[in-house]
Amino acid sequence: MLGKLIKHEWKSVSRVGCLLLGAMALITFFGWLGFQTPMWNALDNGGSQFGWLDVFGIMTLMLYVVMLVAVNYGILAYLGVHFYKTMYADEGYLTHTLPVTKHQILLSKILVSSLWMMILILSVYLSLVILGLAMLTAVMPKGYPEISLWRDVIPGMRDILYWAGLELGWDVGSWVISVFVTSMVSPFATVTILFGAISIGQLFTKFRILMAIVTYVGILVAQSVIGALLRSILAVNGSSLFGTYMNVSLNSNILINCLAAVALYFVAWYITGNKLNME
């Protein structure tokens, strides 16, 4: 039955998810367009050309940043509204009459929503890579072979990371693994925390949506405070090397997010099973 719930939830969320993916593709095109103006092409020979096309390019890049932020927060807002409507509003009556357990309902919604968040995050990374390549291509001298670009840039970056690791005590390999784990875990933790906050908001008799938002913000603030305290303890205990500090800070943030997500999952499960009071 869980598979059927996931399939139904995927169809329901995919409409907006695909729309946001299309928006990401459009945003990336605008960003690429911003690097095609004469200003960027003139940088390879020290030129200082600046005209209306360059103003358009700068405005386009600013629009890229704004739309990138809007897409990131847009998917989170949509998933929150979708969860509220299908769990605690009119559609919730149908959801809670299905012959399934509360765990199955919550798991189907968390898994599908998290997967869509992960897809959007990966699309953001891909967009940034494409834009980075567009910028490099725009500022490199004309006729400079692309194979030479890769041959020159990649070894240089490798050397920079190597010497940074030696000077700062930074285990770059461990940091990259932690970033990868964070990227995979973060969507699931973020969605679970959001759904838990929305569920807590339903315990109030009035202003439930507002209280859900306040609860979510409060949880984020609490996580930030706990993370700051852990980093302060780490600094006081002598972890003066920047690299060590960065690695441990990132790992502690992963741990805090996971613990908060597990706790709020069971909070949401308890509320839907014992304190359900739909509008």
Describe this structure in words.
This protein has helices at residues 2-34, 38-42, 52-88, 90-95, 102-139, 146-168, 172-201, 208-236, 242-274. It is mainly α and 279 residues long. The mean pLDDT is 79.
Topology:
Elements lengths: L1 H33 L3 H5 L9 H37 L1 H6 L6 H38 L6 H23 L3 H30 L6 H29 L5 H33 L5
| Count of individual beta strands | 0
Alpha plus pi helix count = 9
Category from helices, strands and their pairing: mainly alpha
Helix share, percent: over 70%
Uncertain segments of ≥5 residues (pLDDT<50)? none
Q: Which series of helices and strands comes N to C? A: HHHHHHHHH
What is the average per-residue confidence, as pLDDT, rounded to a whole number? 79
For the CA atoms, what is the radius of gyration?
23 Å
Task: Indicate the proportion of strand residues.
Answer: under 5%
**Backbone shape:** globular
Alpha carbon gap, first and last residue: 27 Å
- Could you describe the largest sheet, including whether it forms a barrel? none
